[in-house]
C-alpha cells in the first residue's frame, strides 16, 4: 500500500469539495477500496473518510418510499424490518453478498460504486483499458467471467448484488456533487464505460452517492434474487437474476427482470419482462421468458455457459415466485 | 551402543536406501490388545489454549528489536534475461537499507543448481529479481517501484506438450524434459495383457494446477549474534533449512539455528528452505539488524509451489469377470520452471490393483510457469482421480458394481514388489464405508431424491499411500525434579497435532497423566535430529523414538526411586504420575525422591528402529461420495462423504478425525473449485488471491463421516502406527468425480468440476 493522507469529511458539502482535489478518493466501508490500495491498483494521495458524515447513515420509512442513506451498512439494511417484510428481493441479494464480516463494514454507496472484479483489471502488473491503458486484455484472454451483453471496449461485468435487486424495485438514487446532482433512476445511474468516461457509473470524480430511495410500488414477497456462484458463499456472481413481479389475481401485472454478472452494468431485459404482462405463469412461459432474456446475448471464447445459466436462473426465479404466491 | 544400519525409506511414494544410526535397543511393538489409558483416547491439543488465545507465536508474529523488512521484486515476464539493473533511485529513498540483486549478492546455487539465489535469467513471471530491505513494508513497496530493470524478453513456453516439440524455447539449457527422459515402469508384457482382455476402456483425464494457499504464507525472520545466525522459519523441516542456509552462506552447521514453534499450514510447500530465508540472512548480515522477509498472498501463489497440472491417458483391459489384464497409464506433468523431483502421477496405477501387465510413463516437463512443489500426496491425488474414474467406466462396461470390481482385483500382496504388507485394512474399509453410505441401496436413493433439475449421484474411490516413516529420528525424555516430564525432539508440529500425539506416547509409557508432560520441538539447537514433517511420516518416525526414550527414563526413575525410597523394585510402580508401593498401597509423589538428589534430572534416550525388510508398509482407505448436481446452474454440492481409512494404530482419534476432515475438504476443493488460472499470452497468474482462487468455505463442507480401521501394525515400528497426513486427500476427487458421473450419466474428465464445465456438458447433450 502506498502512503496517503487521511481526511475526515464533516459533511457532504465538504466531502464534495475535498474530492475536487486531484488524486483524492472517497472511502467509507473500505472493503473494496482497501484491496485496490493494497494491490496498488489505486494509489490516491488523499483519502476522504465519509464515515464521519453524520446524516448519511439511516434507513427511514416514509409514506411513499423507503430511504436508505449511502453510509448504511449492508448488514443494517439486511436486518431492517421493512426490508425483510416488503423487499425480500433486497434482503436475499444482501444475504448472498460477500460474508457477514464484509457486510458489517460495506456500505450501500460503496456497493453500488465498487470496481469491477475482472482479473486483468485487478492484476497489479496489467495496465488495462479500464486503468487508462490501451487495450482490454480480457477480450482475447481468459474471459470466462466476462460479459455476454453490451460488450464494449471493456468486457468486465458489474459485480454488485444489490444493484440488480434495487433496479428491479424501481429504486432511485440521489447524488451530491459537482458534475451530477439530484435524483435519478438507479437503472440510469449505471453506464457502460466509454472512451472518455472509463467507469460503470455516471459519477464524476467529485460526486457522491448520498441516498437510495425504494418506492412502495410492489407488494411484499414478489421478488426473488438468485445468484449462481462457483462455491456456496463468498463469491461474486457468475450470473445472477433479480426477478420482481406484481400480480393481479393470477396474472402478472408488471415484471422486472435484471441480470447481474452479464454486462458492464446491471442488465435489464425489457423484452422478456414484456412477455409476462397480463399472463399467468406456466413452466412453458417461464422457459420462453428465460430464452427471451438471453436472446441477444453474445458469448465470448470462454463464457458461453453464462447464456444457459442466465436463462435457467430467470426461469427458476419466475417459477419460484409462482410457488411462493400459491 | 550405536549401530549403523541400512534401511529402506519411503518418501512421497518413492523408495530410498539410507544408512542410519540406531542407538540402543528398540522395544517390542505394543500388542494389538495392549491396554492403554491415554493412547487411543481422544485428546484435545495440549497447546490448544495458546492457539485459541493468540499466545502461540507463528513465524509471522516474530518481532525483534530494530527489525527491518524485506520485499522481493519479481519478474513480470515468463522468460527474460536481466540486461542491467539500476537500484540507485531505490537506495536513495529514505528508509531503504539495502537492495540485493544478482550483481551484489553471492552466487548461491538454488533448486538443485537449476538457478541461483539471484539469477540473471528469469524463468517464470514471479522469479526473484531483487530484494529491498527497508524500515517498513510500505517503504519496501515504494522502493520496488524505483528499481529500474532492463529486461531482454525471451521466448517462452507454458504448454508441456508444446515444450517438448523441437525448437521450443528452452526453460533450462539441459532441456525441457525432466532428467532427459520419461520415467517408465513396466511389469509383464503390456501388449499381451491387452490381447488377453475381453473389454478395454480408454480415457484422457486432465487435472489443474492447485495452489496450497497456506494460511501462513512462506517467510523467515533472521538475526545474527556475532557469527551465529538464528532463523525463525515457517517450515516443515527445521534441520533441512539449517543445512541449506549453512551451505548457502558457507557456515558450519552449528552456527545456524532454525526455530519454528507454530505454523499455519505447509502441505508440502514448506518441505525445503526458501530463497526468502537466505535473503533475510544475507540482509541481516549486511545491515546488522534483524530482517523479516515474508511473502504476501500474491507472491505465495506465484512462487511458493503448486500441485502441477497433468494430462493423463489411461487404457485398462479386463476379462469378462472383471480380472484386470493390463493397464497403460501415461502422464504428462507440467512442472513449471523448477522442481525437486519428477512429480509423476502414475504411482497408484502400479500399486493399487492386482494386474499382471502394467506400463506407466511419466513425462515431466519444464515450462515457464511457477514451480512445482510437493502438495499433500503429490501425484497420487491426480493419479487416483484418473485411475479410479477408469475403473468406474470399466465396471459400467462390464455391468458390475464398481466396488465388486475393486474387490475382484484386490491385492493381497504388494503387486509392485511381490512383498507381503505389514497390515492392509482396505477390504475392511471398503465394507465399512459401503455400509455407512448405504452403497447397496444407492440406486433407490438416487431415484427417490433426484428431480428434473437436481440429480443425485454416488461414487467411490480407493486410497493407497506410504506412511511408514522411518529412521533416523531421535528423542530425549527428561524427568524434572518436580515430577514433570519433557519430551525433547528436533521435529516440528506443522499444525497436525504432533505435540499432542508425542505427549500421549510419552505419558502412556511413563504412566504419567498427560498434564505432566511437555513437548519441546521446533529448534535445531535444542532438539535431537528428527526428519522433515512430510510424507505422512512424523508420528511413525518420531513417536517410536519417544516411546524408547520414555521407557528409558521410566526405568531410570524406577531404579533411582527404589534406591532412594529403599523399596524393592518389584514392589514399586508408577501410577498416574506417582509412585505406588504395590504391597502397602502407599502413594509417593515423584518429586520426593528428587528432593534428596540436588536437582538431579533423569534423561532417557531413544531412537527410531529400522523398518521391516522385504515387507511393504502402506496405508489404505476408501471414500464414498454422495453429490447433488443442479442441472440448471451446473453447481455440484457434495452432500456426504464417508471416509474409512487404515493407518495402523490410532493414537489420538480426535486428531485423526480432524486430519481426515481436513484432507477431504482440501480434496473437495481440488475436485470442484480450486484452479490456478493463467493468461497464456503473458504467462501471468490471474487469480493469485483468495477471492478468485476458490478454496472451499464452511458452507461448502458436506456431512463428513470418518472412521478408522484401527489395526495396530506389528511390524512397522514399536507403536504400530503409520501416517495419516496425506491419505485422506487422495481419494476425495476421484470419489466426487465418480459420483458426478453417476448423477449426470456422463463423465467429465477434467478437474475441477466447475459450473461452466457441467453446463457445457449438459448443453452439448
Explain this structure:
Chain A is an alpha+beta fold and 326 residues long. Chain A has a domain at 223-325: CO dehydrogenase flavoprotein, C-terminal domain (Enolase-like, domain 1, 2-Layer Sandwich), CATH 3.30.390. Helix content of chain A is 29%, strand content 20%. Chain B has 3 domains: 3-59 and 469-607, Aldehyde oxidase/xanthine dehydrogenase, molybdopterin binding domain (Aldehyde Oxidoreductase, domain 4, 2-Layer Sandwich); 63-154 and 218-294, Aldehyde Oxidoreductase, domain 3; 382-468 and 614-764, Aldehyde oxidase/xanthine dehydrogenase, molybdopterin binding domain (Aldehyde Oxidoreductase, domain 4, 2-Layer Sandwich), CATH 3.30.365.10. In chain B, the strands form 9 sheets. Chain B has a 7-stranded mixed β-sheet, with helices on both faces. Chain B has a 5-stranded mixed β-sheet with strand order 11-19-18-17-12, sandwiched between helices. In chain B, strands 20-28-29-32 form a 4-stranded mixed β-sheet, sandwiched between helices. The longest helix of chain B has 28 residues, at 538-565. Classes of the chains: A alpha+beta (326), B alpha+beta (765). The interface between A and B is large, with 39 and 37 residues. Chain A: It comes from Fraserbacteria sp. (strain RBG_16_55_9). Chain A: This is FAD-binding PCMH-type domain-containing protein.
What's the gist of this structure?
Chain A: It comes from Fraserbacteria sp. (strain RBG_16_55_9). The complex is a heterodimer of chains A (326) and B (765). By secondary structure, chain A is an alpha+beta fold.
Amino acid at each position: 500500500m502506498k502512503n496517503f493522507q487521511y481526511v475526515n469529511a464533516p459533511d457532504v458539502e465538504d466531502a464534495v469539495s475535498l474530492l475536487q482535489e486531484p488524486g483524492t478518493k472517497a472511502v467509507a466501508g473500505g472493503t473494496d477500496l482497501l484491496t485496490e490500495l493494497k494491490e496498488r491498483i489505486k494509489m490516491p494521495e488523499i483519502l476522504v473518510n465519509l464515515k464521519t458524515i453524520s446524516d448519511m447513515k439511516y434507513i427511514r420509512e416514509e409514506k411513499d418510499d423507503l430511504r436508505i442513506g449511502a453510509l448504511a451498512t449492508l448488514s443494517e439494511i439486511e436486518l431492517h424490518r421493512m426490508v425483510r417484510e416488503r423487499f425480500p428481493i433486497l434482503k436475499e441479494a444482501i444475504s448472498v453478498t460477500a460474508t457477514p464480516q464484509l457486510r458489517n463494514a460495506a456500505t450501500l454507496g460503496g456497493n453500488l460504486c465498487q470496481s469491477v472484479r475482472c482479473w486483468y483489471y485487478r492484476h497489479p502488473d496489467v495496465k488495462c483499458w479500464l486503468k487508462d491503458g490501451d487495450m482490454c486484455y480480457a477480450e482475447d484472454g481468459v474471459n470466462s467471467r466476462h460479459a455476454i451483453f453490451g460488450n464494449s471496449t471493456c468486457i468486465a461485468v458489474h459485480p454488485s448484488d444489490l444493484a440488480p435487486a434495487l433496479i428491479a424495485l424501481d429504486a432511485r438514487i440521489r447524488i451530491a456533487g459537482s458534475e451530477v446532482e439530484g435524483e435519478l433512476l438507479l437503472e440510469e445511474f449505471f453506464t457502460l464505460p466509454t472512451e472518455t468516461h472509463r467507469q460503470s457509473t455516471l459519477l464524476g470524480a467529485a460526486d457522491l452517492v448520498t441516498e437510495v430511495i425504494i418506492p412502495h410500488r410492489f407488494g411484499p414477497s414478489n421478488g426473488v434474487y438468485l445468484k449462481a456462484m462457483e462455491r456456496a458463499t463468498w463469491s461474486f456472481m457468475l450470473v445472477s437474476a433479480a426477478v420482481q413481479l406484481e400480480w393481479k389475481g393470477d396474472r402478472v401485472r408488471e415484471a422486472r427482470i435484471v441480470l447481474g454478472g452479464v454486462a458492464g452494468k446491471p442488465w435489464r431485459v425489457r423484452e422478456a419482462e414484456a412477455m409476462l404482462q397480463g399472463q399467468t405463469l406456466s413452466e412453458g412461459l417461464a422457459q420462453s421468458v428465460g430464452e427471451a432474456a438471453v436472446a441477444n446475448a453474445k458469448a465470448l471464447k470462454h463464457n458461453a455457459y453464462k447464456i444457459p445459466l442466465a436463462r435457467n436462473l430467470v426461469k427458476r426465479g419466475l417459477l419460484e415466485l409462482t410457488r411462493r404466491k400459491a | 551402543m550405536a549401530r549403523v544400519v541400512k534401511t529402506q525409506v519411503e518418501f512421497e511414494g518413492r523408495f530410498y536406501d539410507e544408512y542410519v544410526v540406531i542407538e540402543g535397543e528398540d522395544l517390542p511393538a505394543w500388542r494389538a490388545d495392549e491396554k492403554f489409558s491415554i493412547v487411543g483416547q481422544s485428546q484435545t491439543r495440549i497447546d490448544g489454549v495458546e492457539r485459541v488465545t493468540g499466545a502461540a507465536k507463528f513465524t509471522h508474529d516474530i518481532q525483534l528489536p530494530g527489525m527491518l523488512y524485506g520485499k522481493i521484486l519479481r519478474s513480470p515476464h515468463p522468460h527474460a534475461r536481466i540486461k542491467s539493473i539500476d537500484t540507485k533511485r531505490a537506495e536513495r529513498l529514505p528508509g531503504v537499507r539495502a537492495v540485493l540483486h544478482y550483481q551484489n549478492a553471492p552466487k548461491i546455487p538454488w533448486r538443485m543448481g537449476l538457478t541461483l539465489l539471484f539469477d540473471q535469467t528469469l524463468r517464470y513471471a514471479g522469479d526473484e529479481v531483487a530484494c529491498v530491505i527497508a524500515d517498513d513494508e510500505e517503504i519496501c513497496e515504494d522502493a520496488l517501484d524505483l528499481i529500474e530493470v532492463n529486461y531482454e524478453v525471451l521466448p517462452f513456453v507454458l504448454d508441456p506438450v508444446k515444450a517438448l516439440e523441437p525448437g521450443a524455447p528452452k526453460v533450462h539449457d539441459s532441456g525441457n524434459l525432466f532428467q532427459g527422459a520419461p520415467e517408465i515402469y513396466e511389469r509383464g508384457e503390456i501388449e499381451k495383457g491387452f490381447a488377453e482382455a475381453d473389454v478395454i476402456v480408454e480415457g484422457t483425464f486432465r487435472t489443474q494446477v492447485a495452489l496450497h494457499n497456506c494460511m501462513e504464507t512462506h517467510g523467515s525472520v533472521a538475526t545474527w549474534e556475532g557469527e551465529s545466525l538464528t532463523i525463525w522459519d515457517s517450515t516443515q523441516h527445521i534441520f533441512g533449512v539449517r543445512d541449506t542456509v549453512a551451505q548457502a552462506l558457507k557456515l558450519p552447521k552449528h552456527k545456524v539455528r532454525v526455530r519454528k514453534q507454530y505454523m499455519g499450514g505447509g502441505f508440502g510447500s514448506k518441505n525445503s528452505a526458501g530463497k526468502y530465508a537466505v535473503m533475510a540472512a544475507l540482509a541481516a548480515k549486511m545491515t546488522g539488524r534483524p530482517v523479516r522477509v515474508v511473502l504476501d498472498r500474491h507472491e505465495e501463489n506465484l512462487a511458493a509451489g503448486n500441485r502441477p497440472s497433468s494430462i493423463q491417458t489411461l487404457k485398462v483391459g479386463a476379462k469378462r469377470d472383471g480380472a484386470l489384464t493390463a493397464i497403460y497409464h501415461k502422464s504428462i506433468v507440467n512442472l513449471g520452471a523448477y522442481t525437486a523431483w519428477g512429480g509423476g502421477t502414475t504411482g497408484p496405477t502400479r500399486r493399487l490393483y492386482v494386474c499382471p501387465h502394467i506400463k506407466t510413463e511419466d513425462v515431466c516437463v519444464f515450462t515457464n510457469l511457477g514451480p512445482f512443489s510437493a502438495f499433500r500426496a503429490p501425484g497420487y491425488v491426480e493419479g487416483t482421480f484418473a485411475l479410479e474414474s477408469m475403473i468406474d467406466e470399466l465396471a459400467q462396461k462390464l455391468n458390475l458394481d464398481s466396488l465388486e470390481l475393486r474387490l475382484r482385483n484386490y491385492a493381497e500382496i504388494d503387486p509392485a514388489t511381490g512383498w507381503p504388507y505389514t497390515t492392509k485394512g482396505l477390504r475392511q474399509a471398503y465394507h465399512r464405508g459401503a455400509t455407512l453410505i448405504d452403497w447397496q441401496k444407492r440406486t433407490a436413493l438416487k431415484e427417490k431424491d433426484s428431480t428434473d433439475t437436481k440429480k443425485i449421484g454416488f461414487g467411490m474411490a480407493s486410497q493407497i499411500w506410504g506412511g511408514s516413516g522411518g529412521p533416523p529420528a531421535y528423542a530425549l525424555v527428561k524427568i524434572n525434579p518436580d515430577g514433570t516430564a519433557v519430551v525433547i525432539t528436533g521435529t516440528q508440529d506443522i499444525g497436525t497435532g504432533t505435540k499432542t500425539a508425542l505427549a500421549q506416547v510419552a505419558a502412556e509409557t511413563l504412566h504419567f497423566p498427560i498434564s505432566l508432560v511437555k513437548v519441546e520441538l521446533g529448534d535445531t539447537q535444542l532438539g535431537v535430529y528428527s526428519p522433515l514433517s512430510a510424507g505422512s511420516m512424523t508420528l511413525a518416525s518420531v513417536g517410536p523414538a519417544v516411546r524408547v526414550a520414555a521407557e528409558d527414563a521410566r526405568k531410570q526413575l524406577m531404579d533411582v526411586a527404589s534406591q532412594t525410597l529403599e523399596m524393592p523394585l518389584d514392589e514399586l510402580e508408577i501410577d498416574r504420575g506417582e509412585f505406588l508401593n504395590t504391597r502397602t498401597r502407599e502413594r509417593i509423589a515423584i518429586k520426593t525422591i528428587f528432593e534428596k538428589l540436588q536437582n538431579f534430572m533423569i534423561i532417557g534416550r531413544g531412537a527410531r528402529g529400522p523398518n521391516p525388510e522385504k515387507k511393504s508398509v502402506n496405508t489404505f482407505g476408501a471414500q464414498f461420495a454422495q453429490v447433488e448436481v443442479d442441472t440448471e446452474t451446473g453447481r455440484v454440492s457434495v452432500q456426504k462423504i464417508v471416509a474409512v481409512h487404515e493407518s495402523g494404530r490410532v493414537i489420538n482419534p480426535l486428531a485423526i478425525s480432524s486430519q481426515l476432515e481436513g484432507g477431504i475438504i482440501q480434496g473437495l476443493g481440488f475436485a470442484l473449485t480450486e484452479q490456478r488460472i493463467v493468461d497464456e499470452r503473458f504467462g501471468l497468474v490471474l487469480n493469485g488471491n483468495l477471492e478468485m482462487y476458490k478454496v472451499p468455505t464452511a458452507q461448502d463442507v458436506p456431512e463428513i463421516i470418518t472412521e478408522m480401521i484401527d489395526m495396530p501394525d506389528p511390524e512397522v515400528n514399536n507403536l504400530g502406527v503409520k501416517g495419516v497426513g496425506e491419505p485422506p486427500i487422495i481419494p476425495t476427487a476421484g470419489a466426487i468425480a465418480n459420483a458426478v458421473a453417476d448423477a449426470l450419466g456422463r463423465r467429465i474428465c477434467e478437474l475441477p468440476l466447475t459450473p461452466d464445465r457441467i453446463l457445457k456438458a449438459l448443453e452439448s447433450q
